[in-house]
Every structure is written in C-alpha cells, then in structure tokens.
Write a structure and sequence with these properties.
heterodimer; A: alpha/beta; Rossmann fold; 9-stranded mixed beta sheet; two-stranded antiparallel ribbon; 15 strands; B: Rossmann fold; 2 domains; 5-stranded parallel beta sheet; globular
C-alpha cells in the first residue's frame, strides 16, 4: 500500500495577513508557516492507516526551499519520505499538474490532501489531480475506511453527509474529523532529519491564470453598543439602520 | 459562444445560489454580448424551468438521464462537458457548494479551462479577463487574470444580486453519455437535515459558542433562529466537544458563511472563527465579556448575559417581524 499525501505550506491560522511589493506579495514578516490544517488531517489519517494495515507514506509539497521545515514536520509526524517540487505554487492548476506528474511516475493506491489550502482556498487541487490521473476524487471527506481495495468514505454535503463506496486508487480531499492530529514525538523528530527528502524540478505547465495583485477587505467602522436592558433597540437598528431584517 | 450556468437543486428546489449564478452570468453576458444557457442535471425541480428566463437565462437545458438523479462528481463533470461542447460555451459559471468545486475542477481539465473558485465579483473584461476572488479564508482578495480561452468561475454567495427583469426561457432536454467509468463512486446513503435552513446559504445565521455552557442550552439559539428563519451555527470548540454537529461549525476550518446578518452569542471571536464570518454583511455580537475580540469585528454589540438577553431579543424580533 502506497499513500501520497500532498501538503501545503501556509501561514498559521492566527496570522494577520498583509502584503508588500505594491500588493503583489504576502508580507511574511512575523508570519509562522505550518502544514495546511486540512492537509494535516490527511496526513494523520495516512499515518493511522499505516499503523493499522501497513503503508508507505510519501509527502509531496510544491514549494521553494523555505518549505523544507514544514516538510520535515510531516516526516516527523510519520511520513516515510518526501518530495519537494522546486517551484513557487503559482495557482491550483500548476500545483495539481506537478502532483499528477509525480504520481504518474510512481503508482500510488491512495492520494490524500486537505479539502483546500488555507491560503488560496481554491478547493480544487484534489479533483484536478483526480481528473488528470483519470481516477475518482472525493471531497470534502470526513471519514475514510479501507477494506482491502474497497473504501467507504463520508463526504460532507450542505446540512449533512453522504456515504460513498469506491475502489482504490482515488484522491480524497480531507477535513476533520477524519483523524486526530498527531503530535510528533522525539523519535519522530530525530528520524525526520535523516528520512529522504528528494528535490525535483517542476514540469512545464501552460499558464492558465496570473495573480496580479492582492488587497485587504475594508475595515469595519466600529461597533455600536446597545444596552443589555433594551434588546429591542438592537432590533430597531437592524430593521431601520442596517436594513437586514 | 454562450455562457453556461450550472443550476443546482436541493430537496427538489432550485437553490437561490443558482439564481444568483444566472444573474451573474447575465451580467457577463451584457458585457460580452452573448446569451445565457442554464443547465440543470437530474430530476425536475418543483419550479417551472421557463421561469429561469426571469433571472437572465435564454435557454434551459435539462439533462434528465436516469443515471444522473443522484449527484455524482465525475458524472456531472462529464455531462457538463457535453453540454458545453454542444452549446460552444466559453464561460461556465457555477454557484459554490460542496458539489460544484470538485465538479468544476474535473470539468476544467476536460475543457482545458482555468478554474477560478471563490469569485466575489463580476469579471472586469475591459482589458483581458480579470476576476476578484477571496483568499486567506476571507482575510484578503486577489485579482486574477484568466489566460485560457475557456473559463470556469465558481462564485461565492452574494457575488451578484438577483435580477428579475428577464422573460421566459426556452427549455430543452438533453441526454448525456455517462459511462460506467464516470459512475465508479456509488452513493450508499445520505444523512441530511431536511426542512432546515442550510448554513452556507442562509441569509441570517445565529451561532452559539462556549458561553452557552452546554448543548442543553441550545434552545435559546434555536428559538431565535426560528423567529428569524435563520440557520444555526457554532464555534469550533462547540463542535469539537460534540455539543453540535460538525456541519454547523463556522470558521477557518469549518463552514464559511456570508449571510446578511450574523448573530454571534457567547463566542469570543478567535481569528479562526472570524475567518469564517468576515464576509457577512452585518455582524451582531452578544457576549458577557466586554473585552471579547469579536466586538472589534462587529457592527452591533450587547455586553451581557445571553440567557437573559436572548429570550427578550427573541420577543422583540417577533414583534418587529409581525
């Protein structure tokens, strides 16, 4: 059983976002980078599968050299080896093309990643990869159980979930509560230093989209307070001032 | 060339987000001087399909295959590819949902089209084709230029307002070729709350946090939501503790909402929660802690005990809405 886990290298969820270079680049000053939280659920599920039925886990990241500490963390959590595609992740199509190209060179039974990255939030890479490899893709997946080459997955839908049955190989975009996050132990951290991390160059991809610039949302003008003893005042403001009811 | 708009249904009804998508498509249609074709897959909804003309569709194509009655990511992508080719459409618009993101992605590869999701505004077509999309979970926006000839846009709620100035649409049925390969993923069961206002599409959301002290106290949230015809949501700790189901979790790693009115009760306003609500039009915060960070992101606030305020507020809403 070979599992490929795709991870993104993204600002911590508590990061304050701002931009530099005339609003064309993320301001990384003071920003801590982490494994994408959804990707970490995917990795945790892969490690659980490895612990229960045995598997070899490869993590892949499309990123420049600064993503290596994030990749090492994935190795510490339990991946066996890693690949870094040496390129800035320009857009979802670029990233998916790199993952699919690598996945074609080595056959995987299962490809897991987060439902979306929390930086560009496209939520499409899993399905782009699935279509590129001509195998099924399911997302967002909250539960994934394997029984030989068959799988049962719970896919979240608006207001509930659907239970799906399919066969390996496939791609899944994961989210909680698919697995508990794993905290790397000392042995994991030590062994991560020596586990193989291969750097490959990207394949050429047609440019489908270009990110021109970024902007921040306009700030709220301030919070109008209503006294707790007169909640009807709030109703009046929502009706006559904000006009939302 | 035409603009294709995917019309999604839920529980036998056309979703409001689909009407927004048609109006959105129609606004691009005006700029590019082209017509709008709406595509609906699966069983007939209770609404009359010709009425989609009102929102801007010239024609409605109903893909009525028996094997497409249940939404299936791969099969829907194949069906949409066939309709796109038949109509020679260059732009495909889909309203964002748990179904359309994956469908759009697979369709994008089939058509060699760029897929841009989370789009928040009608594209700027004056010089190239540029769209605005939400990134960093609503903490920022990006302007993206699409270079591919065919373009797929998955639009966020409120990306366009619904316009009802059109006439009647013509309706035709279409039978798509769906292979077994497209139907590899088999649905065994659906567990879905029925008859409820769905969180991602709700116009008003009432959310509760740890301040409510326990799941047994959710009655006051539900009562208020019922009065307002609102969906109920919760913070991450509440869903982590299983007080409420996961699909109600609003935040960075949960559901992102963009209602007209978001009422947060007993939620302190961690950055992770704010990321899920910051595209709400108006935010009301009720919290007993005057220092709760959520007040900084709110339009209106009340400092006080939710257990006292909510029943009174509910009565006041009832009066105002009658």
């Amino acid at each position: 059983m070979k599992i490929l886990v795709c991870i993104s290298h993204v600002p911590d969820t508590t990061s304050k976002i701002s931009f530099t270079d005339n609003n064309t680049k993320l301001n990384t000053t003071g920003v801590q980078f982490i494994i994408g939280p959804y990707d970490e659920y995917a990795l945790a599920r892969a490690v659980e599968i490895k612990e229960s039925v045995g598997a070899e886990i490869t993590v892949i990241n499309v990123g420049e050299i600064d993503t290596e500490p994030t990749i090492r963390k994935a190795l510490a959590i339990g991946a066996d080896n890693a690949v870094r595609v040496n390129a800035f992740p320009k857009d979802a199509f670029f990233v998916a093309s790199q993952i699919a190209s690598y996945a074609k060179s080595t056959t995987f039974d299962l490809i897991l990643m987060g439902r979306e990255s929390i930086d560009f939030n496209s939520g499409v890479v899993h399905s782009l990869v699935g279509e590129m490899l001509n195998i099924p893709s399911v997302s967002p997946v909250m539960k994934l159980d394997l029984n030989g080459t068959k799988a049962v997955v719970y896919r979240e839908i608006e207001g509930g979930k659907e239970v799906l049955e399919l066969s390996l190989p496939f791609v899944a975009g994961c989210q909680e509560p698919i697995a508990e996050w794993k905290i790397p132990n000392m042995k994991g951290i030590m062994s991560a230093r020596t586990k193989p991390l291969v750097v490959v160059e990207p394949v050429a991809v047609e440019e489908e989209s270009i990110y021109l610039s970024f902007e921040l949302p306009t700030a709220k003008s301030g919070c109008k307070m209503v006294d707790a003893s007169t909640p009807e005042k709030l109703v009046e403001l929502l009706k006559n001032e904000a006009k939302v009811i | 060339m035409a603009i294709l708009v995917f019309v999604e249904t839920s529980e036998g009804h056309i979703k409001k987000s689909s009407l927004e998508a048609i109006s959105y498509g129609a606004q691009i249609g005006v700029k590019l001087n082209t017509t709008i074709v709406a595509v609906l897959i699966g069983s007939s909804p209770s609404e009359d399909l010709t009425s989609l003309g009102k929102y801007g569709a010239t024609k409605v194509i109903h893909v009525n295959n028996n094997n497409l009655q249940i939404a299936n990511i791969q099969a829907y992508a194949s069906a949409l590819q066939q309709v796109t080719e038949k109509e020679q459409a260059d732009i495909i618009v889909l309203p964002k949902s748990s179904l359309t993101d994956p469908v759009a992605a697979r369709l994008g590869i089939k058509l060699k089209a760029a897929v841009v999701s989370n789009v928040t505004e009608v594209p700027d077509t004056t010089n190239g084709f540029k769209v605005k999309r939400a990134i960093y979970t609503g903490k920022a926006f990006a302007e993206v230029e699409i270079k591919s000839t065919k373009k797929i846009l998955v639009i966020k709620k409120n990306a366009a307002s619904i316009k009802e100035d059109g006439g009647m649409a013509s309706v035709e049925t279409f039978s798509a070729n769906v292979s077994d390969h497209d139907l590899q993923v088999v649905q065994k069961e659906v567990n879905k709350a029925t008859g409820q206002v769905l969180l991602p599409e709700a116009e008003i959301v009432v959310s509760g946090g740890r301040g409510l002290k326990g799941p047994e106290n959710w009655g006051i949230i539900e009562d208020l939501a019922k009065t307002l015809g609102a969906a109920t949501g919760c913070s991450k700790p509440v869903s982590d503790m299983d007080w409420r189901p996961h699909h109600e979790h609003v935040g960075q790693t949960g559901v992102k909402v963009s209602p007209n009115l978001y009422i947060a009760v007993g939620i302190s306003g961690a950055i992770q929660h704010l990321a899920g609500v910051n595209s709400s039009k108006v935010i009301v915060v009720i919290n007993k802690d005057a220092e709760a960070p959520f007040f900084k992101a709110a339009d209106y606030g009340i400092v006080g005990d939710a257990f006292e305020i909510l029943p009174k507020l509910n009565e006041a809403f009832k009066k105002a809405l009658n």
